[in-house]
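pasting for ref
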Amino acid sequence: MTTRTDATDEFLVKAGRFFTPGKVSEDLRTVTREGGREGDIFYRDRWSHDKVVRSTHGVNCTGSCSWKVYVKDGVITWESQQTDYPTVGPDSPEYEPRGCPRGAAFSWYTYSPTRIRYPYVRSVLLEAYRLAKTQHPDPVDAWAAVVGDEKTRTAYQRARGKGGLVRSSWPEVNEMIAAAHVHTAKAHGPDRIFGFSPIPAMSMASHAAGSRFISLMGGAMLSFYDWYCDLPVASPQVFGDQTDVPESADWWNASYLIMWGANVPTTRTPDAHFMTEARYKGQKVVTVSPDYADNTKFADEWLNPHPGTDGALGMAMGHVILKEFYVERQVPRFVDYVKKYSDLPFLITVKEKDGAYVPDKFLTSADLGDDSEGSAFKTVLVDSASGRPVVPNGSLGFRYSESGKGKWNLDLEGIDPALSLHNAGGSHNVEVLLPRFDVGQEDSEGGGVHTRGIPVVPVNTTGGERLVTTVFDLMLAQYGVGRDGLPGQWPTGYDDPAPYTPAWQEEITSVPAEQAIRIGREFAQNAEESGGRSMIILGAGTNHWFHSDTIYRTFLAMITLTGCQGVNGGGWAHYVGQEKVRPITGWANLAFALDWQRPARQMIGTAFWYVNTDQWRYDNLGAGLLATPLGEGRFENRSMIDTIAQSARSGWMPSVPSFNRNPIEIVREARAAGIDPPEYVKQQLLSGDLKFAIEDPDAPENWPRVLTLWRANLLGSSSKGNEYFLKHLLGTSNAVRAEETTDRSDHVTWREDEAVGKLDLLVSIDFRMTSSGLFGDILLPAATWYEKHDLSSTDMHPYVHAFTPAIDPPWETKSDYDIFGDLGRKVSDLAPGHLDTVEDLMAIPLFHDTADELAVTGGVVKDWKTGEVDLIPGVTAPKFIVTERDYTAIGAKMSALGPLLDTVGTVTKGVAVKTGPEVELLKKLNGVIPDGPAAGRPAIVTAAQACEAILTLSGTTNGRVAVEGFRHMEERTGQQLADLALDNEGKRISFADTQARPVPVITSPEWSGSEHGGRRYTAFTINVERLKPWHTLTGRQSLFLDHDWMTEIGEQLPTFRPPLNMHRLYGDQSTGEGREVTVRYLTPHSKWSIHSEYQDNLFMLSLSRGGPEIWMSPEDADAIGVKDNEWIEAYNRNGVVVARSIVSHRMPKGTVFMYHAKDRTVDVPKTETSGMRGGIHNSLTRLLIKPTHVAGGYAQLSFFLNYLGPTGNQRDEVTVIRRRSQEVEY
């Protein structure tokens, strides 16, 4: 040991002069240094700046936060949260400061290694194109030569994902892309061209630019809300709306809050403070999640059901609410609410089956002999005063008829609806058979049957005497809440494990029955005492399941039964995706080029990917397996693709590509034959000479050919069934391990030679390298959010934000808006001689919020293909519409507003507005196009001009438009509405206004809630307070659905359906190699990324583990002998993932998380299972289609883009995990 002495100290101090400048005093007590603050120069330079620019972020996080971007010497140096939000008033916390660590890291991307700086092309393709150009000087002919040579086409397809990207120039890549579009439209049809870009709210002009280009080409934009499985199908089913929810400040107004499958601090970080602050004024917070999530530590109580069983818990709480607040005693407010705002009092016919009865259809005015306009869609209830059936206002039959003007409202006009027929005069009780799905899953997904009892009364109808009951009586039977004198099997109490008691759910969910009773009771009791201020925040944890619609309907039933919907501080609050484009009218008209042509081609994303990645060929889940034993055999021997095909030919959902021939050629054939094209198509379909493309999706003539991605990372984030995408859509290396199904369709052609590599061209536009870029053929460098003009809005707050460029796009990057403008002009240059002015035949589905909703009377399904009904376009089949397209004018139309805004105006959710004044205003604001096809039209040449147009055309940002829309609605409803916007009639929010600070929006008929008077926005307040109907069959919140397909699968009423039995469907996925564990595989949203954004950001990589990881419980880790941070492999029939293990006590046994979404760009080694680089989280998933999601043509079950469609669910999946070698190779 060395002893320290004074001499040692003296030496050390004096020796310091060799390392540190300065003079040591004689007494060794001070060191004197001379000079200024040169040592601080680096630090001070780092945080100095020349200017500060206010902007926002365009990522699907729902934040839409205001940020200050600091710039020095033309370089972005950092960003911080802006604090310029308007106050929300003295009785609530403020919105600011907003932001999160992810957002604070964004500027790193600007100059990062992941930044795409130049246009790139896959070298094999570029060389082939350049060679073709030497032989075919016309670029369109050159592209035709490239894709027409199968050897060349296969070569560049197989190179996808394997590097070989080389720099090109903007003129060359624009020429290639434009040539591909022109050739595809000419040779195959414009409906073989597709665009995918999600979440327009996060950057509206950027989305609209590409969508406008695709729409003018005649291509189809793919939906995203249903594809992301963010769309809760229960919302259109119950509300006829999608998705309208409270802003986050309204959480503050709730006095009871359940976070159910929504991890607010992680996924709604800027808004989480409202949840934490509300606790200080007495709000009770309950969390429901299988894991100990971040939000659980803020909760007063935690319920942790087994994954996917939330519906059972919801049914049990509903059982408690109905029993204690409707039967044992009746809460006056609840009863009044459901009589007025729900379908509970409406009459349902019942029919005999197996010696008892089953629910059938809504009784309508037509059933009672009324043959007036719309009578088949006017639903009936009993007036308790007279005991007679009456037809109240507000149902669908009043919405579109001339006689219904002034009657489409919820004014009962003195009628007191009878909620129940129990002990009513002339009633008797009968047994009713109801489906249940908690049994029999070892054999099928169809469940079993149990018997309950209901009161019924006879009614004389045009078809003879029918027995009817009320929806409320059926609800009590469904939930197992008995009353005196009713036959059937009933639970004896909460402790009886019969459906749907608290004891029953405990056996399924593991949540203690007493806890379910207490939370259900408290939720309703709070709603009673507070006037409806009980709220459920919902999220992906409950929404990404195959049966998510049934899960959600149990929640929404709780909300409706307690009178919470349409009340500030109450109702449902679904937050999955930044869905609310507040200035929706202006965005939609620009995005789909509705100012030049109507309608636009659109396609349901999930069905498109399911079909064109050939996942249908591997699907063992037949439609018949879902049918209840009480069904009529409608799905017997039917595969899921059969149901998609029937939906397409019935006009329920869009199907693009539409026919097995070029739609341009179809019109030419019709004209040559002297037959009107729609009639020609009808004749050709009936003769079998023309077929829908969906009937033979693997035929090359029916393949999609060109796909453009922007603002999207399809192949690194949302590609459910990723390996099937790589194999069948792209034709490159993949890790598909599944065998094709033996349960093959009798209606859709099965080709023995599988289709591999359907796409001719994949274009990816992004500012960073992603998996989509790695697999793309052409990569275009996009500007970031700090380098362009744009608009942003969100569900979470009532403001509109602007993007303002802090710097010009660096290197050779361009904004999305400019990229598509250039492409439009290039198409116009190349079109002459190939595509000039042509006619295009479109197959358009039956739309929601139009009279198309009246097509399928009574929800009775009849198929023209089987001869049950005639083929009637627009009724039993799609509408066949001819559109003229001048491809030489696309460039001009991209940059100008078209004349339809002058002559037709706009229509949003059935509300029409004449926009002539807005067009004239935009001519003054933006200027006009001086010459060419768009001469004299308002200019939208720049993104800033497009933003001005979006704001000017929308009611939320233009008071005149809002007032006119409300006037239109007043005419139909007969209710006062315009006063909600009158005080803002002269207000117009300009783009400059949004650049200065966040601007609150104006109350508008585009949305169902009101901000009038400074109140916090929540959904459906206009319905509740102004008696405007919901857009449903009855005009009320719908708890009963009577479409034939809903009946067939036993989902007329709220019910519980467990996760699919994947083991029975697909067998044991284990390999027998080493120690393996089979687990439920979930992909929730990440703490350190927004989808795949930020996960590759250096700051987020530093805060997280970095690279792919799988969270698992200690028990599952012990089962395979793996320790924390060791490498593991997860695999099933769909693919393989290699990741590091994170062993944590917060995870329940039998469930693992791989957070969404880790891209293939960071730390992804080769797998032992496949020998290829490990996949992404979606390499272990695949798509499954629920047939009721493609039902349509009937009331609220009608198509609109991102309103209704099959969801890209993948939460029912299981996987096998084992410990692998810890020596990894890349």
